[in-house]
Amino acid sequence: MGLAQVLHDFANWSTVCGVPHIANARTKAWRIFWSVVFIGMVSMFIYQLYTMIVKFISFPTNVNTEIFFEEQDFPVVTVCNSNPYKYSVIANDSNLASIVNLMEVYKEAVTKSLASDDAYGFFEIMNTESEGNVSSNEYQIDQLAWEALALEAAQLGEQQLAPALYTFEDLITDCTFSGKKCSAADFTRVYDPIYGACYSFNEDASLRYSTNRAGMKFGLKLLITVSQYTTSLEKDFLPTTKMAGARVSIQPRGIHPALDNNGINVGVGHQTAISLTSTRTRRMKEPYGKCVDNDPTGTSPYKTGYTLETCFYNCRQRETMKQCNCANPRFKKFDSQQWCLPRKTDSANAQTQMQFENQNFPVKCLKSLRGDQSSATPNICPLNDCSCGPPCSEISYLTTASILKFPAEGYFVATNPMQGVAGSCDNQNPTFNKDQRKCRDWYAENALLLQVFFETLKYESYTEVPNYGISAVLNDLGGQAGLWLGFSVISVIEVCALIIMLGLFCVTCGKLKVRPDDGELEEDERIKDVEEVKKELDEADKHDKIMNDDESDDDDDFDDGIRDNNNEKQPKP
């Protein structure tokens, strides 16, 4: 059996549209026509196959949105005083003299009475006022003071600052959850480099506060006393603190509060109601998405769950270490790293002027790393430079805040008549000399009421799923193959059989003989056709032989007759 015969046989019994037409075309023109049609259909199928492959390797996704209505775990609510340290304690503690010195220099810079250069760089900023941008300089002075305060506090450490930090009793006067009293045992103390001692409600894993009803009555209610004035009306805020109130962060359990970025400011003299709507998001990892479960570097000083903010913080800290050779106290650091010094130093081993300024003036170095929107080349852009991906699983809360004046005229902030209870404006409380007016006025300037609750128990769940998986590819492949080539599973098997036959043909160099069995021979239409043709040919030969014999006899009779006639015509002798 030759190669041409193998291909011809395949063309005869193939179910691929167009192939039998090419093999059995009666004329050359029809064979060319069907060949062109078949090549065109194959080309269209290859093009569709290419588009399917391109779409598949792009790994597209869809987002399925589902809405649920069920009992929800209450989030972690972290509250801090906008003033990190008690000024009354700092001013009288010799161990904290560095902060006192910073406050004095800051006050001189603000009042423009600073006459000479200082260790923090305020005088340098003041000298740029000749350019006419006074408001910008005032902003820079405030920012420099905040940076320097964080650096001074980092050098002192939390333990040395402890006397100046606000205790739970100092900050939270009253606490209820769904109408039931809560206490310090329901809070976890968190130290923040900017806001000092903060307190997180429901952070402890043993606490499982949840709510099965929405509304203000079924949430957390806190009476917070920030005490910018003591009850004896002495100032207790640092000169660098611009706002009187609290900083509030709302996040799931096990997540870093990120107060500096994601906190909400709540002012004194108001009741602030924060309603929550929960959203849950599940993202896909590579190759379908870019979500990650851990920091891309593999190591992070943050021991909480991974978030985009903590990844950015870690990245910015690495850049700070690279540029300034020290760590920014706004972000966590590893034990082997050192905090940046708050003041200028006199010596350095720098080889360039920029290195000299960065190493000898860390505050200026930290300021430069924040990036300037007006600069054509900002120092660091976390979105582009940090390679941080979003978390694969995330719970977020949409917050809506509303405020009312607090306390109202004639309202008893608390009814506990015990002496020393800061939350009582009862006329038996001697704290304000039993003067309820003074008590309410003090609360209007030094306290706030915070309520956090779910607006609805309904929440939306967003789940990222593959948009074009293997099953979709197979469906499209079958559809396109059937549309353009009439392909089916049988056709695929036929092509596989042809490939096997061609392989065997090549391996045996064309010597492979295929011997059909008797049944196949009997059923083979081609053999039947040959036998019929043979019979017809035999019949034709037989018929021709008979005709030839008859013609021979007639010729003999004709010859005999001629001879007889000739004999009769001859004369007798």
TrEMBL record:
InterPro entries: ENaC (IPR001873), ENaC_CS (IPR020903). It is a multi-pass membrane protein. GO terms for cellular component: plasma membrane. Residues 549-559 have a biased composition (Acidic residues). Residues 525-548, 560-573 have a biased composition (Basic and acidic residues). Keywords: Glycoprotein, Ion channel, Ion transport, Membrane, Sodium, Sodium channel, Sodium transport, Transmembrane, Transmembrane helix, Transport. This is Uncharacterized protein. It comes from Trichostrongylus colubriformis.
